[in-house]
């Protein structure tokens, strides 16, 4: 449970930093004036992103494995951009959440999100290790 919560917070922080860096990616809170609502919105979007990436992303990666090899992994940028667009679509159904201005903004946002998330996971790796004993 602790590992899940740490990963959720890391994804939310990475998403927040991505919205600051990439102009075409933003998050719309369900209550514009409340800071707590903004934090909850980022956590909800990070949860949806984790679910979409874990379920749909893994299925796409398994099916498209030969294409990944053929393109030397460059297809992953396109797939990650599409997954970010799927997250934006899912969260927009609730009336708040992730907003991506276009496909290429999605690809750039996914690249930045992956880099920031990877760096944060590397820094916080000791917190997510399971202790034996």
TrEMBL record:
Membrane-spanning segments: 12-30, 36-56, 68-90, 102-124
Pfam families: Phage_holin_4_2
Keywords from the named record: Membrane, Transmembrane, Transmembrane helix
Signal sequence region: none
Organism: Arenivirga flava
PANTHER family to which the protein is assigned, alphabetical: SLR0284 PROTEIN
Keyword DNA-binding: no
Organism domain of life: Bacteria
Listed name of the protein: Phage holin family protein
């Amino acid at each position: 449970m602790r590992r899940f919560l740490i990963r959720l917070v890391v994804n939310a922080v990475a998403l927040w930093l991505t919205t600051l860096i990439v102009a075409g990616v933003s998050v719309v809170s369900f209550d514009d004036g409340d800071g707590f609502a903004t934090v909850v919105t980022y956590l909800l979007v990070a949860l949806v992103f984790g679910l979409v990436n874990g379920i749909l992303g893994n299925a796409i990666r398994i099916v498209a494995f030969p294409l990944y090899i053929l393109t030397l992994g460059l297809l992953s940028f396109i797939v990650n951009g599409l997954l970010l667009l799927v997250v934006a679509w899912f969260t927009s159904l609730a009336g708040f959440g992730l907003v991506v201005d276009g496909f290429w903004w999605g690809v750039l946002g996914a690249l930045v999100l992956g880099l920031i998330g990877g760096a944060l996971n590397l820094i916080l790796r000791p917190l997510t290790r399971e202790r034996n004993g």
